[in-house]
Design goal:
Distance between the termini: 91 Å
Structural class: alpha+beta
Pathway: Protein modification; protein ubiquitination
Subcellular location: Cytoplasm
Protein name: E3 ubiquitin-protein ligase RNF123
Radius of gyration: 40 Å
GO molecular function: ubiquitin protein ligase activity; zinc ion binding
Subunit structure: Component of the KPC complex composed of RNF123/KPC1 and UBAC1/KPC2. Interacts with UBAC1 and CDKN1B via its N-terminal domain. Interacts with RIGI (via N-terminus) and IFIH1 (via N-terminus).
Largest sheet: 8 strands, mixed
Length: about 1300
């Protein structure tokens, strides 16, 4: 302790001896008159001690105990009532009845006042009931989900479907659905939010029941309550799974007491009076100073008081604390007396002065109270501060939150108190992350945002439209003034929130800077808290990271931070059941055991491998606990952790996310001897409860967390080892919780966009409404007012969300995590096979954080403004391009995520240009992987990537909204929008080069594309047949939405596969048309067969496709003639119009030779029912029929002219083919397709077919169609008859 009296050792027992006569002559005690004046000043209480008694004799330490007894005498009305109070039945200490008064599965906390739902709709009541009088209790809402809070009688019976309010004589308020319940339900009250306090009031004299929300009455909810014999009402609640609340029956001061109503549990009235009087005496000590030289008392401010070791003052304080200390273990007195006193100091003085006074008060606590008394008091003090902060209402200046945080900082900066709190309180029962949360106000008028942001504004278009459409409508001068006024209000709000955030960062720095080998960890954290907590953690982490760099020049700055790859395989960090890139950890350690020994000098303990093997084989053994069941223990602030909080309080996901905080010790790293290349270190996986400090920070022989450095990594440490694990945990936290919460918060912005659109539509209708229709105009005006009021409310809420979640500083934090993940992946990739040990969440965070930066933070903040934006895009592009087909990554989920991320990446110009900037060999490797046969991986995502490289180059393939929908609903702003085309000619060229290179690349790729097209279109036709049959039934049928979705997906896949074929034919036409290629004829015949099949199915008159399209079913909006017919037309035009005459003739002959070819299908493209007569002009298209000529906004004149030339060419060619065709006997036709004459015989079995059928079959199978014998060779049928020439089988 810093004061002069710190060296004295006083105990309360020794101070009892000061009443002896000899103590008056102790050296240092002031003379009697000054002592009398001082004691009278400290213990003056004229309201409770008769004047004659005070003036009869001087006060000294001999008669001070008697004086204190008189001072602490309590009037009879202040004494706590003994026995039962009229109108109340049950124990005087009211708690939840966890023994028999519940239904369903509920989790009740140790104090029996907090409850968490763990079943569908669990119900629990209190131990005490009331039958007469006016009573209330408070419920602290921890989560805003489905709950019914109120009163019930003991006769009420509940189950998993019926809770409080669903039975007679039970009454409830539900702020989630904003209703009241008593068998029936009606609208009532306001919506509640997490952090609100509901007061439940019952007046059994008047027979009424009402509720208050944050002290504001919601009105009488129920009247005419049943009263009389046997009718007594219990506080009760029913709550859904994972919902949680805390009750206050009176064990703590009510936050919102109501005049005339009593809490169910009586406050400790007598002790409260005594504590207040003793606090008054203590205040007097702090405001009065003895001047023994001049023999007088000097009044001073408490902030100027110093403990100087004067015996008179020390003895006085000892007498006060002798009576005061036993009272401070009660939470009611701590909250009502001590916290109010400390908050008064914080509110009155400057931060430095307040901290000085608080420290002196804590010094006195530790000096004059027993250790267990101080510890109990501090525990209750911090619990109350957490509760007060969490449930404090939001006021415009955030003064309540600021005062609670300033007091917390003052307490934590007291070294001895902080040591105790870190080791026993903050990371066990108190869930300290609550201090780092800033709750969002659900009701802006109560938060005072109307005064802070008087002018509201909202964008004229959504943020997505603003990013996609560069031609934004210019705002008017009035809109500009409103926007600027709104931005000024947002800036004022942000500055006030930044004050709170800075205080939160200071608290976290104090928690992280703990060099005492002690500490515990937070076990339960609501997901919504994690976003704020992550940002505060990043601020503190970067501060300590750069501070370490300042003292260790060889370390790196936080801007260059990454996680070294050895952290993932040396067993020092327990990732529980989180998946690794290469699969299960036990499998990796078996298969990569040699690589670990060669590259990292790590030998896996054989006992561990044997144990893992036995666990895999022993199926009857009890399974290992899941991550939700394992104790979340770890080193806490640099020390070993005691037993954890009960496992049922650990969230399965967030418990793992909170693990990292416990390893956040910031201590100087001692120099370590580097591990020589010849040394082999035998390691085992250490669970968190087995780790010591050396496992994290290392020792003179051990690199701790960095054990097993691969040769690719530099020798110098990146930073302090404990900071590395904190960073690792922060990335894990983002993956497990934060990204999901960021996506949820975007809902406010989406609501603003929806209401803004509705308001614009209403205003347009008002302008168009005839003046004579006053009735319609009145209704539209009402709607306009409702939308405007809602937008005012939402725009203020959006300002709060932007300040707390989506500000520029928060964006930089997420960007920092993205860059760390990129560097970590790059370093891990250099380790070769050991890259498989990296947890999957690093790739997930890289993908998701980029998505968040791109989609969640606009339009106010743009990712393009971030430092190093172009370089970061390029590095992420390189990672996606390399690892989407990386054989070291085996998990299907992460492979799909990589594929989808790459597909999204090539949709946008900025990110597509980044893909084009990566090195050429990486680009070529990416395209090669995309062209690999589709059977080896999920082909749909691969195909979509290729399609997006082509969009904007194909026939009529430049639309951003589906043209057929715009024709039917031109003014519908809710139509699905596609990204603007941004083709990549560079990647298209790589694709063309690869297809020309090897003889097997193009056939295998195109064979898989044609197979998938055949499957997708066949599935689509089968599904629309089922849909049509369901629609034609007389009884009312509803088509399953999932079936509609799959049907639309198959259609979209068919269109995209056709577009890939169009791209291939355009880039490399010789694959199909140059018959010098061995497979070109076969591929062209297969292509012609599929194109004719599609055309015949889609273009037939009044066919199945037409009927389903005219139904306009929701979910099938994309299914129409235009997308698929334009794709087919693009292929046909490239085959029949472009190119030299020889190639055109080959394509024409193959197309006409297919038995499914119908010229009528080609005519359908231009709206003609039949082919035109030779030499006649095309008639005008029928508007009721489909025609490409109706889509001139999307198909230019040149493209239409090409279609007309194609139709004329096919008309002429088909007429010539019909005239020249000769009849063929059935025996000479291929027995497989019955379309072409027999032209090949198989050896050795001798069966026959046409060349097209056998060549297509041999692409996938070497067995004969008929006898299943292996086909060795295929011989030309005509040559067998004549010369017997053979050709080898493909």
């Amino acid at each position: 302790m810093a004061s002069k009296g710190a060296g004295m050792s006083f105990s309360r027992k020794s101070y009892k001896l000061t009443s002896d006569a000899e103590k008056s002559r102790v050296t240092g005690i002031v003379h009697e008159k000054l002592l009398n004046d001082y004691l009278h000043c400290i213990f003056s209480s004229t309201d409770h001690v008769p004047p004659a008694a005070t003036s009869r004799k001087f006060l000294n330490f001999q008669n001070l105990p008697e004086r204190l007894d008189q001072l602490l005498q309590v009037d009879s009305e202040d004494e706590e009532s003994q026995g039962q109070v009229e109108g109340r039945l049950g124990p005087s200490t009211v708690v939840l009845d966890h023994t028999g008064g519940f239904e369903g599965l509920l989790l009740v906390d140790d104090d029996l006042l907090e409850v968490i739902g763990h079943s569908n709709f669990g119900t629990i009541r209190s131990t005490t009931c009331v039958y007469k009088g006016k009573w209330l209790y408070e419920v602290l809402i921890s989560s805003q989900g489905l709950m019914q809070i109120g009163w019930c009688t003991i006769s009420c019976r509940f189950n998993h479907e019926e809770g409080v309010g669903d039975t007679p004589n039970s009454y409830a308020y539900d702020g989630n659905r904003v209703r009241k319940w008593n068998v029936t339900t009606t609208n009532y009250g306001k919506a509640w939010a997490a952090g609100d306090i509901v007061s439940c009031l019952i007046d059994l004299d008047a027979g009424t029941l009402s509720f208050c929300l944050n002290g504001v009455s919601l009105g009488t909810a129920f009247e005419n309550l049943s009263k009389g014999q046997g009718m007594a009402y219990f506080p009760a609640i029913s709550l859904s799974f994972k919902e949680s609340v805390a009750f206050n029956f009176g064990s703590r001061p009510l936050r919102y007491p109501m005049a005339g109503f009593r809490p169910l549990q009586d406050p400790p009235g007598a002790d409260l009076v005594r504590a207040q009087r003793l606090l008054g005496c203590f205040r007097a000590v702090l405001s009065v100073e003895l001047d023994p030289v001049e023999g007088r008392l000097v009044e001073k401010e408490s902030s100027e008081w110093q403990l100087q070791g004067q015996p008179t003052v020390l003895l006085t304080l000892a007498h006060i604390f002798h009576r005061f200390a036993p009272l401070l273990h009660k939470v009611y007195l701590v909250e009502a007396v001590l916290i109010n006193f400390l908050l008064g100091i914080v509110e009155k003085d400057t931060p430095a002065q307040a901290q000085s006074v608080v420290h002196q008060v804590l010094d006195l606590f530790w000096l004059f109270m027993e250790d267990y008394e101080v510890q109990d008091c501090l525990k209750q003090l911090m619990m109350s501060l957490l509760r007060l902060y969490r449930f404090s209402p939001i006021v415009p200046d955030l003064s309540l939150q600021i005062h609670y945080l300033r007091l917390t900082i003052s307490i934590l900066r007291h070294e001895k108190s902080r040591k105790f709190l870190l080791s026993n309180v903050l990371f066990d029962m108190l869930r300290s992350v609550i201090f780092f949360y800033i709750k969002s106000p659900l009701r802006v008028e109560e938060a005072g945002l109307q005064e802070l942001i008087p002018t509201t504004w909202w964008p004229c278009c959504s943020s997505r439209e603003a990013r996609e459409n560069k031609e934004v409508k210019e705002e008017t001068s009035e809109e500009r003034l409103r926007r600027r006024a709104y931005e000024r209000g947002c800036q004022r709000l942000k500055k006030r929130i930044e004050v709170v955030e800075e205080l939160q960062v200071q608290i976290l720095k104090l928690l992280l800077d703990n060099k005492d080998d002690s500490g515990n960890m937070p076990m339960l954290c609501p997901p919504e808290y994690m976003v704020c907590f992550l940002h505060r953690l990043i601020s503190a982490l970067r501060y300590y990271w750069d501070e370490y760099k300042a003292s260790n020049p060889r370390a790196c700055f936080s801007e260059e931070a990454y996680i070294p790859p050895q952290v993932f395989y040396n067993g020092k960090v327990d990732y529980f059941d989180l998946q690794r890139l290469g699969g299960l950890l036990s499998h990796l350690r078996k298969t990569l055991r040699d690589d670990l020994a060669a590259k990292a000098n790590i030998v896996i303990d054989p006992l561990e491998l044997q144990a893992a093997t036995m666990d895999d084989l022993d199926e009857d053994e009890e399974p290992a606990p899941s991550a939700a069941q394992r104790p979340m223990q770890a080193l806490a602030m640099g020390g070993a952790l005691p037993l954890p909080r009960p496992g049922w309080l650990s969230s399965p996901t967030l418990g793992r996310a909170n693990r990292f905080l416990s390893t956040a010790a910031v201590s100087l790293m001692t120099p370590r001897r580097p591990l020589s290349t010849s040394e082999k270190v035998k390691v085992r996986t250490l669970s968190v409860e087995q780790r010591t400090r050396e496992d994290i920070e290392g020792s003179h022989w051990n690199e701790g967390l960095l054990l097993g450095r691969p040769p690719e990594e530099p020798e110098q440490p990146v930073t302090e080892n404990s900071l590395l694990e904190v960073l690792d945990g922060a990335i894990m936290m983002y993956n497990l919780s934060v990204h999901q919460q960021l996506g949820k918060m975007v809902g406010v912005s989406d609501d603003v966009n929806e209401y803004a659109m509705a308001l614009r539509d209403t205003e347009d209708k008002i302008r168009r409404c005839p003046k004579r229709r006053k009735d319609i105009l009145t209704e539209l005006t009402k709607s306009q007012k409702v939308f405007s009021e809602k937008l005012d409310h939402l725009s203020r809420r959006l300002a709060w969300v932007h300040a707390t979640v989506y500000s520029q500083e928060k964006m930089l934090d997420i960007y920092w995590l993205l860059r760390i993940c990129l560097r970590t992946i790059e370093h891990g990739d250099r380790t070769g096979s050991l890259f498989a040990f990296m947890p999957e969440f690093y790739l997930n965070v890289a993908i998701n954080s980029y998505s968040a930066l791109k989609n969640y933070f606009g339009p106010v903040h743009s990712m393009e403004e971030l430092p190093g934006y172009e370089e970061t895009l390029t590095r992420l592009a390189a990672i996606l391009a390399k690892h989407f087909a990386d054989t070291r990554i085996v998990g299907t989920d992460i492979r799909d995520s990589l594929m989808q991320a790459l597909a999204s990446y090539v949709c946008y110009p900025h990110s597509l240009r980044a893909v084009e900037r990566i090195p050429k060999e990486q680009r070529v490797a990416m395209v090669r992987n995309l062209l690999a046969p589709y059977e080896q991986r999920p082909w749909a995502q691969t195909n979509w990537i290729l399609v997006r490289l082509w969009r904007g180059c194909g026939f009529g393939y430049r639309y951003t909204r589906l043209p057929h929908l715009l024709k039917t609903k031109p003014d519908d702003a809710n139509l699905p929008s596609l990204q603007k085309p941004c083709p990549s000619t560079l990647l298209q060229q790589h694709m063309a080069d690869l297809l020309r290179q090897g003889p097997d690349v193009a056939p295998s790729f195109l064979n898989s594309v044609l197979n998938q097209l055949n499957w997708a279109f066949s599935e689509f036709i089968g599904m629309i047949q089922e849909i049509q049959q369901a629609a034609e039934r007389l009884e009312r049928n509803f088509v399953d939405s999932r079936q509609l979705k799959v049907c639309a997906t198959c259609f979209d896949l068919s269109v995209s596969l056709l577009r890939v074929l169009e791209m291939t034919i355009t880039l490399v036409p010789e694959i199909f048309l140059d018959w010098a290629w061995p497979t070109s004829e076969m591929l062209l015949r297969r292509l012609a067969q599929l194109l004719n099949q599609v055309l015949n199915r889609v273009t037939a008159e009044r066919n199945l496709f037409d009927r389903v399209v005219t139904l306009r079913l929701p979910g099938l909006e994309s299914v129409d003639h235009y997308p698929i017919l334009v794709a087919v037309t693009g292929i046909l035009v490239r085959l029949l119009v472009h190119g030299p005459a020889s190639e055109t003739e080959r394509a024409t002959s193959v197309l006409l030779a297919d038995p499914c070819f119908q010229l009528r299908s080609i005519c359908y493209l231009l709206g003609q029912p039949e082919p035109p007569a030779p030499g006649t002009a095309l008639p005008a298209p029928d508007r009721k029929r489909f025609s490409l000529q109706s889509y001139t906004d999307y198909i230019n004149a040149e493209e239409l002219a090409q279609v007309e030339r194609m139709l004329a060419h096919l008309t002429s060619a088909s007429a010539q083919a019909a005239a020249a065709s000769l009849p063929t006997s059935e025996e000479d036709l291929c027995p497989i397709c019955y379309a072409h004459p027999i032209s090949a015989v198989f050896q050795p079995c001798g069966h026959k077919s046409c060349k097209a059928c056998i060549n297509q079959h041999l692409m996938n199978n070497k067995d004969c169609f008929f006898c299943k014998a292996t086909v060795v060779s295929v011989e030309d049928w005509d040559k067998v008859a004549n010369t017997g020439t053979t050709s080898s089988a493909p």
